[in-house]
Design goal:
Order of helices and strands: HHEHEHEHEEHEEHEHEEEHEHHHHH
Structural class: alpha/beta
Low-confidence stretches: none
Strand content: 5-15%
Radius of gyration: 22 Å
Number of strands: 12
CATH architecture: Alpha-Beta Barrel
Mean pLDDT: 96
Number of domains: 1
Shape: globular
Length: 422
């Protein structure tokens, strides 16, 4: 890292963007409003700590790869997360699934979890100075083996999962209360059918009933917010997913909940960026799960591509940052897991910075004047503007590795820490 070179490059970029009417110093300040919730499950391939050496199974999701260094204990996971946080500029949160409780070596079934099982995570977040989000874990469990949880026609199983979600919401409210920032609780279920079902309506009627029961208690919004997440299909649920986008969008609008838009949960030709302004006409807030689907919801590490850029641009162009909760959702076990975090988070942050470096007002003027050639020309020229100089300066100011310098840091961590794990 050459500090003087980075500073000089930034000054040149600052002047170039100023010619377009963009204040890069203001952009650097605005980046503080971009808070990314880091999904804990990237550290251990969605295993959790319910049982020794737990592994993901069932529920239409799958982690592939067996790269050395998987976190197998809470201590290892927290060490990995702390390393990740040290390599990122900007602000982050923790996103925790219910299967990651601090159970003290005892088996606690999911309809029995309490705040005490997550108190050490709350305390860890206090030390890190970050907020925390939470998720009910309606998968990888014997009572999810037949592919149905909240929409199960087995009343005992349905009630089990209703109780689980109830408890997760109670825990979320306490998390938000203790940390002083609202905890977003997200409900996603894998329920669906491998082959064509007859009674689609019956399952969806049960899901609505279960959600109504699970969310009957209202908690202060300054403590917790409810989100519901749809999916197009999953492994073993190719023909019908009970919790479709249409179902959850209707539920969110009717009940004033957040809709979670995961950009891997739609048809490959759909653009989640286009859905943001549509959904926010009718709901107060939404939750994003940023991932990179390859042909289907394969949860690849987020990279700076056009789909991600449209999402970020739509949020920034419309001043939606205070109405959008940004989270990541990918789990790649084929590469260094710390590296996956850093690449994915930085890609998301870069997309938002690029959006902020756009002369939006000027582009809208062109659009409304019918100057579509000029608008397209400006958008094309923006692609080669010196964004990287602004990004490098942002990292320098934050005291984190600039450019590719984080690669060596992660390699060293792998050599000193990850390589010693069994």
């Amino acid at each position: 890292m050459n500090k003087s070179r980075i500073e000089a490059a930034y000054q040149l970029a600052k002047e170039e963007y100023a010619e377009l009417g963009v204040n890069t110093d203001a952009v650097l300040q605005k980046m503080n409003d971009v808070v990314v919730s880091l999904h804990c499950w990237q550290t251990d391939d969605v295993g959790g700590f319910e049982t020794p050496d737990a592994t993901l199974s069932g529920g239409g999701i799958q982690a592939t790869g067996n790269y050395p260094g998987k976190a197998r204990t809470i201590e290892q996971m927290r060490a990995d997360l702390e390393k990740v946080l040290s390599l990122l500029p900007g602000k982050q949160r923790l996103n925790l699934h219910a299967i990651y409780g601090d159970f003290g070596g005892e088996f606690v079934d999911r309809d029995q979890i309490e705040v005490k099982h997550f108190q050490s995570w709350i305390d860890w977040c206090k030390v890190q100075g970050i907020g925390m989000d939470f998720n009910a874990s309606c998968f990888s469990h014997p009572k999810a083996a037949d592919g149905f949880t909240l929409s199960s026609k087995n009343e005992e199983i349905r009630k089990f999962w209703v109780e689980h979600v109830k408890r997760c919401r109670t825990i979320s409210a306490e998390i938000g209360k203790q940390l002083g920032t609202p905890c977003v609780h997200n409900t996603w279920i894998p329920d669906g059918s491998k082959d064509t079902p007859i009674d689609r309506n019956g399952y969806r009627t049960l899901l609505k009933k279960s959600l109504d029961e699970a969310m009957a208690v209202d908690y202060p919004k300054e403590h917790m917010k409810d989100a519901v997440e749809s999916k197009l299909f999953g492994i073993g649920a190719e023909s019908m997913t009970v919790g479709s986008h249409d179902f959850y969008l209707g539920y969110a609008i009717k009940n004033n909940k957040l809709i979670c838009l995961d950009n891997g949960h739609f048809h490959p030709t759909e653009q989640v960026g286009d859905k943001i302004s549509a959904c926010l006409q009718f709901i107060d807030e939404l939750l994003l799960h940023l991932t990179r689907p390859v042909r289907w919801d394969s949860d690849h590490v987020v990279t700076l591509n056009e789909d991600l850029q449209l999402i970020a641009s739509e949020i920034i162009r419309n001043n939606f940052l205070n109405r959008v909760n940004i989270g990541l959702d990918f789990f790649d076990a084929s590469i260094n897991r710390i590296g996956a975090y850093v690449i994915g988070t930085r890609a998301a942050q870069k997309a938002f910075m690029i959006a902020m470096l756009e002369p939006t007002a000027r582009l809208i003027e062109m659009e409304e004047a019918g100057k579509n050639f000029e608008r397209l020309a400006m958008l094309e020229e923006l692609k080669t503007k010196p964004f990287s100089a602004v990004w490098d300066y942002y990292c320098l100011q934050a005291g984190v590795p600039v450019g590719t310098d984080y690669i060596a840091e992660i390699q060293q961590y792998e050599k000193e820490v990850l390589s010693g794990r069994w």
